[in-house]
Design a protein that fits this description.
With 423 residues, the chain is mostly helical. α8 (187-194) packs parallel to α11, α11 packs across α13 (337-346) and α12 (305-324) packs antiparallel against α15. It has helices at 20-64, 73-82, 85-100, 105-112, 128-134, 144-154, 165-178, 187-194, 207-224, 233-256, 265-286, 305-324, 337-346, 348-358, 366-383, 387-396, 401-411, 417-422, and strands at residues 295-298, 301-304. It has a two-stranded antiparallel ribbon. It is elongated, with a radius of gyration of 28 Å.
Length: 423
């Protein structure tokens, strides 16, 4: 059930600046339209699959009757059906003729079991439906990553533009439910868990998870009480931060260890979503990032707007990649369906980079792509020779003042940007 592993954010600009607010609305509409289309296609594919299963059930039921009460009768019938319609017709004709010629059921069974088919099942099934399901390919949920890439290509804005995440999450949860995952779970509840906004129900989880959460809170409290003026501040901070990472890794292992039990899925997912939120928040705190003012601390100095956003994206990107490692095994595979849901919805881009890295491929990260786009715009501003010339040029291309501030603060750090933008 792999979703492509991209995030739910529009890409950075590649063709100059556009008004961020207008672009965000346009990309959202594009994304949602494509999402609706893709989900409709998935619905039709599932209908087709049900028809295939029903047809194969009939074929299996008919074929197994030739083998009497043999315990492997249904399995042999499934093997025949797995070979395709031509194989079914050929074997059926052979068996019907053999029956007319007086062949025993044992003879017919012996003949069929040697039919080569590398993809045929090799197990017993309780019902013909089970057998038919086993040889019918599952329909994967909508490729959200592909849609995200398409939305990214549609975007001409300078910065990441959030699409309607609630709708995306709700859709993905419903797709999982359609595949038999996350049964008996309200969609809204799972969506809140994915976003890390659902209160963790520790009664649904192993006792160790609650104990680890309490320990995690204690470590966080110690970090908040560190003396930033102390010579040992950075050493102590690094030690406690590593301890938090260790505890979070253990919590995630314990939470996802509930695979296959009747325990509420959203409880497990809420642990993973909450820990991801905390990991991102910790990364931002380490650089003193202020979301409202768009400022951060770099090498002891205050940086703003473009530099602050660039720094924030860099540290958060690294933090998310480290967090991802707590949700996969040594080969890079998601630990189970709970971890997979979080990866698909919130760590798609990071997972894709991990997969490429394990495969020996090198692709630019999201942060690198954003920085490249911004650097190109800074070059344009610098080459024009003055902030006034750049403002005139960028406004002709639909740039907003918010976008201009980012570029001007880098290209012309000594300019009075507020004064220039009022002209």
């Amino acid at each position: 059930m792999a979703f492509s592993l991209a995030g739910f954010i529009g890409g950075a600009a590649t063709q100059g600046l556009k008004d961020i607010e207008e672009e965000e609305l346009r990309v959202k509409k594009f994304y949602e339209k494509e999402l609706d289309r893709s989900v409709a296609e998935q619905r039709e594919m599932r209908k087709d699959r049900r028809k295939k299963v029903e047809s194969r059930m009939e074929q299996i039921t008919m074929l197994e009757s030739f083998f009497g009460g043999d315990p492997q009768a249904r399995n042999m019938a499934a093997k025949v059906v797995a070979g395709g319609s031509a194989n079914v017709n050929m074997v059926l004709n052979t068996l019907q003729q053999a029956r007319k010629n007086g062949a025993s059921q044992a003879d017919m069974f012996k003949a069929v079991q040697f039919i080569p088919d590398k993809d045929a099942p090799n197990q017993s099934f309780e019902t013909a439906k089970d057998a038919a399901e086993s040889i019918t390919e599952l329909v994967k949920p909508a490729d959200i990553g592909g849609l995200s890439t398409a939305a990214s290509k549609q975007s001409k804005g300078l910065f990441s533009m959030a699409v309607n995440k609630d709708k995306i999450f709700n859709t993905m949860v419903k797709e999982y439910q359609g595949m038999g995952e996350l049964k008996n779970e309200p969609t809204e509840k799972v969506t809140q868990a994915l976003k890390g906004q659902l209160k963790i129900d520790f009664s649904q989880l192993p006792q160790e998870v609650k104990s680890l959460d309490q320990t995690l809170n204690q470590v966080s409290s110690k970090i908040s009480k560190l003396d930033k003026d102390s010579p040992a501040y950075q050493t102590d901070l690094d030690t406690l931060t590593n301890e938090k990472k260790r505890i979070i890794g253990l919590m995630n292992e314990k939470a996802v260890a509930l695979e296959g039990t009747p325990t509420d899925s959203s409880a497990s997912i809420s642990v993973l979503g909450t820990n991801l939120n905390n990991t991102i928040a910790d990364a931002e705190k380490q650089i003193g990032y202020d979301k409202t003012k768009k400022t951060a601390i770099l090498n002891g100095k205050l940086v703003a707007v473009g530099d602050a956003i660039k720094l924030r994206n860099k540290v958060v990107d690294a933090a998310k990649k480290n967090y991802l490692l707590t949700l996969v095994d040594g080969a890079g595979r998601p630990l189970n369906s709970k971890a997979k849901v979080i990866i698909d919805t919130r760590l798609g881009t990071e997972y894709k980079e991990l997969v490429n890295k394990l495969a020996g491929k090198k692709e630019p990260t999201v942060v690198e792509k954003k920085e490249e786009a911004q650097n190109k715009e800074v070059d344009i501003a610098t080459n024009l020779g003055s902030p006034e010339a750049y403002i005139n040029d960028a406004r002709k291309r639909g740039a907003s003042d918010a976008a201009l501030r980012v570029i001007l603060s880098t290209a012309y750090p000594n300019a009075d940007i507020n004064k220039l933008l009022k002209k």
